[in-house]
Amino acid sequence: MEEDKKEIVERLTKLIKKTREGQSIKNIVYKKGNGDDEYVEVIYFDRTKAIDVTADSGIAMIRDIVNHL
Length: 69
Fold this sequence. Notes:
Layout: H1 5-16, E1 25-32, E2 38-44, E3 48-52, H2 58-68
Antiparallel strand pairs: 1-2, 2-3
């Protein structure tokens, strides 16, 4: 089964934004870079943070995002 990482991030974003920590977040976006690079941008109202999720499974990606908030 192929995981849809973009959809996972979109759904996780909705959940995170319901929390106190999430109120400072404008959006969270999954992006593919050059080659096999994958990352997630956490877009706050005053800054942006990139999280490397290259080769992460769906659950590993969720862990990485939550741990970097």
